[in-house]
Amino acid sequence: MQIILREDVENLGHKNEIVNVKAGYGRNFLIPKGLATLAIPSAKKVHEENVRQRLYKEEKIIHDATTLAEQLKTRTLRIGAKVSSTGKIFGSVNTIQIAEAIRKKGFEIDRKNITIHEEDAIKELGTYKATIKLHKDVKVEIEFEVF
């Protein structure tokens, strides 16, 4: 029996895949739980159209993310911090401050998508690197200066 999965099913397949299962498993478990639908010819046509549209949207999202990545590579970020007489920062620089500096440059990036490369907190003046995840396939590494 062929079915179209509506959700990821462990040890069977991922969402929107067409898979073969035993009739009892599909009829008695997957379909009643809403995890799958029968893969009749009309459902297959609708499925193919949905997959084609999703691929088109995904390509557009990836294209937009790569253009944003190219724009971010050319920008230099400067983050100001209060410093003691010995050169140590009061507090530390974190992703919130990096996201705010990017926002001031005109780009909207969520702080949860920013990863700082330093293992320890940034507590001194200098130049550091961070990675911004724009899409699951598109990441960009930027440099920022703490002054």
Can you put this structure into words, describing what you see?
The protein has 147 residues and is α+β, with helices and mostly antiparallel strands. It folds into two domains: 2-65, Ribosomal Protein L9, domain 1 (3-Layer(aba) Sandwich), CATH 3.40.5.10; 67-146, Ribosomal protein L9, C-terminal domain (Ribosomal Protein L9, domain 2). It is 35% helix and 28% strand. The chain is built from three helices and nine strands. Strands 4-9-8-6 form a four-stranded mixed β-sheet. The chain is elongated and about 75 Å long. The termini are far apart. 14% of the residues are buried.
Key attributes of the depicted protein:
Ribosomal Protein L9, domain 2; 147 residues; alpha+beta; 3-stranded antiparallel beta sheet; 9 strands
List the SSEs and their pairings.
Layout: E1 2-5, E2 18-20, H1 23-30, E3 36-38, H2 41-74, E4 77-79, E5 88-93, H3 95-104, E6 114-116, E7 122-124, E8 126-133, E9 139-146
Parallel strand pairs: 4-9
Antiparallel strand pairs: 1-2, 1-3, 5-7, 6-8, 8-9
Distance N terminus to C terminus?
Answer: 65 Å
Strand content: 25-35%
Q: Helix/strand-derived class? A: alpha+beta
Would you count the extended β strands for me? 9
Please tell me the total number of domains: 2
Would you state the CATH class of the largest domain?
Alpha Beta
Q: Kindly report the CATH topology of the largest domain.
A: Ribosomal Protein L9, domain 2
Estimated helix fraction? 25-40%
Biggest pleated-sheet summary = 4 strands, mixed
Shape: elongated
- Unreliable segments (pLDDT under 50, ≥5 consecutive)? none
CATH architecture of the largest domain: Roll
Count of alpha/pi helices: 3
